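Query structure, 112 tokens:
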């Protein structure tokens, strides 16, 4: 889909001309698409699509549902990952990713 200025949706780099109610043009400056699919999100996080799906289903990872599609905001994924970054000894709190990996392992064992 393209906008009237013939730019792909989600790729606009500034606010539409004359539309001051939406905020300053800096509000709209971003790199890349506003939303990405599950394949791109899993690749960004360096995890499998199955792990991403488990995180999504458990509500551990931020996502957007539009009709039947599940999409992810790259900014939200970065913030989610930064919040779970371990910072040295004593910060070995269990992360959502490790919990999902454990759940997947248990599911595989139970399905055999």
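Result returned for the query:
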């Amino acid at each position: 889909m393209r906008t009237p200025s013939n730019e792909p949706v989600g790729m606009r780099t500034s606010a539409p001309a004359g539309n001051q109610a939406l905020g300053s043009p800096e509000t709209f400056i971003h790199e890349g698409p506003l939303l990405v699919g599950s394949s791109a999100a899993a690749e960004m996080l360096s995890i499998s699509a199955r792990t991403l799906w488990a995180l999504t289903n458990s509500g551990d990872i931020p996502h957007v549902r539009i009709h039947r599609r599940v999409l992810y905001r790259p900014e939200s994924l970065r913030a989610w990952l930064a919040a779970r970054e371990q910072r040295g000894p004593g910060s070995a709190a269990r992360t959502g990713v490790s919990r999902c990996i454990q759940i997947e392992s248990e599911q595989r064992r139970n399905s055999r």
